[in-house]
Write a structure and sequence with these properties.
Elements lengths: L1 E5 L12 H6 L10 E4 L8 E2 L5 H5 L5 E8 L6 E2 L3 H10 L20 E5 L4 E7 L2 H8 L6 H10 L4 H10 L4 H11 L8 H13 L5 H6 L1 E6 L4 E4 L5 E13 L5 E2 L9 H7 L17 E3 L8 E8 L3 E4 L4 E13 L6 E3 L4 E4 L4 E14 L2
Antiparallel strand pairs: 1-3, 1-17, 2-4, 4-10, 5-11, 6-9, 6-10, 7-8, 7-10, 12-13, 13-18, 14-18, 15-16, 15-17, 15-18
Helix pairs in contact: 5-7
Amino acid sequence: MLLSLSNVPRDYAWGSTSLIAELENRSPSGAPEAEVWFGDHPGDPADVTGGGTLDAVTGGSLPYLLKILAAGGPLSIQVHPTIEQAKDGWARETDLAADDPSRNYRDDNHKPELIVALSERFEALGGLRPVADTLRLLAALGEGAGVQALRARLTGEDGLRDTIAWLLSGDAAGEVAEISAALATASDPEFDETLRAIRVVAERYPSDPGVVVALLMNHIVLRRGEGIFLRAGLLHAYLAGLGVEIMAASDNVLRGGLTPKHIDVDELMRIVDATPGIVPVLSPADAAVTSYPVGVDDFALRRVTLAGEPVTIDVHSPAMVLATAGSVSVSAADDVPHAVAIGSALFAADEAVLTLTGTGEAFIAQPG
């Protein structure tokens, strides 16, 4: 059974006013368009052509949520729990109302994520930069009292963990203001691209301690077809660009700055992994099909580039095909081709093989 899916873009404030419209080849709505959800998540289940929503078909059992994401500005810095941490947090908050702003856990699941760039440039922050490298970056900000205080924290016994807790505690407001001001004129050939990106963050969120947390993170630039996997415990934030995102079916988010929403510093520090290191970029294959290895059971994602010849792929249902460029059709065994409009998806409830035809690009999502 193949079902055509669509959805209305969600209008989060950080969304782009043009990227999703350009993808779908339509006029912009004039409002921010941040995410289009293709899944059965109760917050916004996908619409099924002909009537109804996907959750009525699946019973809310999909282990993944597939999205188109368009960042016109920085998202909040955030981190997601492991399954064990989510179960514990969910149990501890059982007496809180579902809409209580102090609630950290919306369910008892983890939320690993993979994002693959659709735009020619997609910017993100991911993971924490090694301290020695950050100290070199800080040299570009001068020797003001705020920079000196930050340097002293970073070189202390607890290093990054202590620094993040200090910044988010509210006790570092003066230092945050001084460091943010120093960004305006900071320059260093090694870090100029990163400094430019953080200046944009500071302009959007002046005086937010997340600006300085962002300075501690790896600045990642993806080209079209490249992706990054964001595991549990890893601080991250998307800054700008259009991408395909897939994640475990969860709404558990602990925020660490760049947001007016609730930040539970103690709980954030309980689950964040403050170990520094790079986030590997997953590059597209020089072939029709690219797999993005993530090592989780909840989801798997493949990118298919079509050049006129049919591409037949084994799938684990329930699967989805999301069309992102050109002209894409999908057929199952002994079935006629179904055209998939750009920016929409096709749901395969119980198929083992799908054949894609046309010219362009599509992504296949399925359980891992």
